[in-house]
Design brief:
By secondary structure, this protein is an alpha+beta fold. The protein is built from five helices and twelve strands. Recognizes and binds the 7-methylguanosine-containing mRNA cap during an early step in the initiation of protein synthesis and facilitates ribosome binding by inducing the unwinding of the mRNAs secondary structures.
Length: 259
């Protein structure tokens, strides 16, 4: 079974590349060097883009994110909590790339494995208090050989941590998930609500009318579809509520929205 980095073993920052290809070069401002070591110019901050080994500044993210991993069930009545493992949390661009470059790629995971990338403090479970009234946008890629799942998942993760999937004040995106199954890959985006109006409870968005709630989720869905590279296709990305999905059992929950 594929192994992932341990939450107790953070990746050393001095080994972190700034791209999936491990390219530590940049065309940015040069930093003066003396005797083969990096020195700051007038105590200027040195980023990983200037010197990959001796930087003193990280690029913070707007939120802290946690990577989770679901290992395949053993077939011996495993409980969900035994399969779901918290891997590591991070709050900077450099830490993200360090983690990404030290975990197994999605394409190499065993069947019935999942990666979940959620805001810290939110468990990737329907029962979590911040998820239980929400839903998710999702799309299944049924022709696994026709897509680059690693590139797609990376693009979606970058969109999530870069806060490009929603607008300021939306406060909807909880996390993203990729499922590895025998017949398909599925990528999903979890939201806090299902777009109803109300007081912020039971799937309602506080201070929004039903039309405004739907508009917010539709806007997020369109951005998610773009992150999946499907914006110019006729493929449909569907949104369903977690409660509906839970009640549907083995059948597919009816989509509330589509883009």
């Amino acid at each position: 079974m594929a192994e992932v980095a341990s939450a107790q073993q953070p990746v050393p920052l001095d080994t972190i590349p700034i791209s999936p290809d491990g390219d530590n070069t940049t065309s940015g401002t040069d930093i003066s060097k003396s005797n083969g070591s990096a020195d700051t110019v007038d105590d200027a901050p040195v980023t990983v883009f200037h010197d990959p080994d001796n930087f003193n500044v990280k690029h913070p993210l707007m939120n802290t994110w946690t990577l989770w991993f679901t290992k395949p069930p053993s077939g011996k009545g495993d409980h969900w909590n035994d399969l779901l493992k918290e891997v590591i949390s991070f709050d900077s661009v450099e830490e993200f790339w360090g983690i990404y470059n030290n975990i197994t790629s999605t394409s190499e995971l065993a069947l019935k494995s999942d990666y979940h990338l959620f805001k810290k403090g939110v468990r990737p479970e329907w029962e979590d208090s911040q998820n239980k009234h929400g839903g998710k946008w999702a799309f299944q890629f049924k022709d696994k050989k026709a897509i680059n799942i690693d590139a797609l998942w990376l693009h979606v993760m970058l969109a999530a941590i870069g806060e490009t999937l929603e607008e300021d004040g939306d406060n909807e995106v909880m996390g993203v998930v990729v499922n590895v199954r025998k017949g398909f890959y599925r990528i999903g985006l979890w939201t806090r609500t299902i777009g109803k109006a109300g007081d912020g409870k039971n799937g309602a968005a506080k201070g929004r009318t039903p039309e405004q709630g739907r508009e917010v989720l539709m806007r997020i869905g369109k951005k998610f579809k773009e992150a999946l590279g499907l914006e110019s296709s006729n493929e449909v990305v569907e949104f369903s509520g977690h409660t509906d999905s839970a009640n549907a059992g083995s059948t597919r929950a009816k989509a509330k929205f589509t883009v």
